[in-house]
Amino acid sequence: MNIRKRPGVLNVSDLHKMRQDDEDLWPISLADMMTLLLCFFLLIVAVSHVDLNRYERVADSMQKAMVTEKPAPKPKKAEPKPVVKKTTPPKPQPKPVEQPAMVRSKVSHTTLTSEPVAPLAQEKPKPEPTPAKPAAPTEQPKPAESVKAETKAPAPESERTGPTRKSLEDIRKELTAKLGLDTSAVEIVPRENGVELNLRGAAFFDLASAEIKPAALPLLRDIAATLSGTPYKVTVEGHTDNLPIESWLYPSNWELSSARASRVARFLIDGGVPRNHLRVEGLADTQPVAPNDDEAGRPIPENQAKNRRVVILVSPS
């Protein structure tokens, strides 16, 4: 019997052929999947290459931005307190002066009332005790003593504003006694009209950072305590080497040197140095102490370390 094939109906033989064709095509899809996985792993390897120095700089800059604005309001509270204490003593001065005036007025009233009532013989003993009462109290010289106290009060102010150039030598001796003769962190250089302090950059700051190291804070506290209340001009200069820097916080060495100098200046203000006597300068690599490169153009690491510094110059205003 001849069986006619209906349209749209598959025979068993056709199904076997289609199955064989599908079995031959599965390696192609597997190869495609493996190729995609290989590309994916290559992409992961390419992205995993990270510049650690760059990310460390970004982390340091974020920490600086979170910390630098906190100690600013401290000097405002410390300055006006001694002024208020000095102005308060003269206020109670008029009180002891008014009391004898009141006593005298009462005595005059009593004498008026006693005149018509008592005879003349009784009036004579009465004026004797009355003038003795206002004369006996020694309250009147007390205002004079307060006046003397007022004249003594402004003496500390004159001591603050009255040191001569000789006290610059005293400042240098005090700094030498506190900081010692070790120049690895701070070098004291005497000048004709002042004192110069060279703060080594390696002892106070990390590379490409304006955050003061914790180990250097005691040295800065000694410097601030010595310069507290000084009438002289204090100039803080920031210096760097010639290595270029490119970051979103410090685009160049100008910003880095200015940030380091301002950080030291703010620490000195918190330590009692008058802010109106301070001046901050960022000089980048324009004033090196030693050449950064040799004649062949190769860098000299030792000289570059010397050029990374912060200078505190104390001079007459």
From TrEMBL:
Compartment(s): Cell membrane
Sections of the chain in a coiled coil: none
Comp. bias regions, Low complexity: 135-144
Biased composition (Basic and acidic residues): 145-168
Keywords per UniProt: Cell membrane, Membrane, Transmembrane, Transmembrane helix
UniProt keyword Zinc, yes or no: no
Family: Belongs to the MotB family.
Record PANTHER family: LIPOPROTEIN YIAD-RELATED, STATOR ELEMENT OF FLAGELLAR MOTOR COMPLEX
Protein name: OmpA/MotB domain protein
